[in-house]
Amino acid sequence: MTNRLTGIRVVVLAAILMGLFSGFASGGATAASLLPGVFSGDAFGTFANSTAGRTATTLGRSAYLATGCRGTGGRTLTNSVTGVDAKNVLSARAIATSVYTNKTTTNAALTSVANVTGVNGLGGRITADGVKAVADVSVGATSITTQYGRSVFTNLRVLGQPVAANVAPNTRINLPGFGYVVLREVARGGDGRSSASINVNMIKIVITTSNSIGVPVGSQIIVGHANGSYRRALSASLVGGFAFAATTRSSVAAIENRTGRAAAIYLGCLGTGGATLSNNVAGISDSGMPQIVASGTGRTTANGSVVAAGASATTTAEVQSVNLLGGLITADAVKAVAKSTYGTGGGKSSTDGSLFTNLRVLGAVVSTPVAPNTRVELPGVGYAILYQRALVQGSTGARTGATMIHVFVTTTNALGLPVGTEILVASANSNADKF
Questions:
Q1: Rounded to the nearest 5 degrees, what angle is found at the Cα of 326, between the Cα atoms of 366 and 261?
Q2: Do 257 and 278 fall into the same domain?
């Protein structure tokens, strides 16, 4: 998907991979005087769970944005995507997301927004000119309130029948031959005093039966997601991170839209309580242009722990049967590991466990272990960085990034890939630092 980032740069992947870090926020005197508490919120346009198979690769979490525990400092961050197309399963003309937070000594506010236009799902059974998800959180001295009222549809139709713009939350409509759809799904949590949260999914399609367009049973597809929460309790440290099996980046939408962040997983700043989260896809490919990237299964994991003594965050990305650029780069398996820890001794970064199995470039076996940031030339295409790694550690935290294969297309080529296209396979990133 073609991402256009405006205002503040919100996608830190490039910085992580190239090691361009400006340091760690440490919570100075100004932060200490603000209302105590941490934010959490995100927004995205489309999503499909791993059961949806290759559709999950195309949809990913399109135009994904997150606030982070420290929030945005009164700024509005934005992201946008054009031309999401998973064929008859789901397509959308454009997606725009934004997140905003603000905090003073007495109150705090959070807003997450996802706007999706030109929606067509399940071969025209669900259509909408516009889908807008909004999650609002307002924090005062003694209470925290959450709102979804600004979440609306424009010209929504289900099975050809019009649906009200502000249809009642959690409205379920059966879809014969497929399953059902939940409209304006809203879930709230917390006690409204020490914490509160709200989660909004405007369209949630659930497939419960075999169907005419081959969407696997158990698939869940979301259009228009916004989430927000606030917790008054403070932590001495925070974690974060993300991982994905593969993605492409290009200024040409027709190329980038073919592979979103496959099997993407994100680690929240308060961790996972020590549990390991995972995501997977059955395979990554595009029948129209398989030379971009083709693979077998892709699996990612995320684990984070925040305790009194410090914090640790680990993400992994593993891809089987990799085939890039029509066979120019192949591998039986690649795995990226990014581990960041923070404690009394400061921060530490590690990518131990990252590996290649039977890696070949231009048909030649590449001996292992591969040295970090190894460059290999790809005549007629460009070059690739193998085991692209960034380790940043200091007294206030650590950040770690590893991408096992990063291809840069720098010349006109027989494969038809535009100059400037990038292909990333097995990317894991994490951070652990002082609040």
A1: 90
A2: yes
Which of 196, 210, 222 lies closest to 144 in space, CA to CA?
Answer: 196
Instruction: Say if residue 284 is in the same domain as residue 355.
Output: yes
Instruction: Tell which of 212, 233, 254 closes a domain.
Output: 233
| 2: in domain | no
pLDDT at 286: 59
Indicate whether 190 and 262 sit together in one domain: no
CA 211 to chain centroid, in Å, comes to: 29
Q: How many domains does the chain have?
A: 2
Q: By the 8 A CB rule, do 227 and 58 touch?
A: no
HSE value, Cβ hemisphere, 13 Å, CA-based, for 145: 7
Q: Which residues of 29-50 are buried (b: 16+ CB within 10 A; e: fewer)?
A: eeeeebeebbbbbbbbbbbbbb
pLDDT at 81: 85
Q: Are residues 319 and 205 in the same domain?
A: no
Shared domain for 54 and 167, answered yes or no, is yes
Q: Which residues contact 337 (CB under 8 A, 6 or more apart)?
A: 314, 315, 316, 350, 351, 352, 353, 354, 402, 428
Residue-wise pLDDT for 340-359, tens only, equals 999 988 999 999 999 999 99
11 touches 24 (CB < 8 A) = no
Local structure of 70: helix, strand or coil:
coil
Q: Are 240 and 311 part of one and the same domain? A: yes
Verify that 413 and 432 share a domain, yes or no: yes
Q: Which residues pair with 78 in a beta bridge?
A: 6, 98
pTM of the model: 0.78
Tokens of 103: 């905090």
What is the Cα Rg of the chain in Å? 22
Burial of 134 (0-12, 13-18, 19+ CB in 10 A): buried
Return the higher-pLDDT residue of 306 and 99. Answer: 99
How many C-beta atoms surround the C-beta of residue 353 within 10 A? 14
Phi/psi for 71 (5° steps) reads: 80, -165
Q: What is the DSSP string of 153-197?
A: EESEEETTEEE-TTPPTTEEEEETTTEEEEEEEEEEEE-SSSEEE
Q: Which domain holds residue 217?
A: 37-233
CB count within 10 Å of CB 132 equals 21
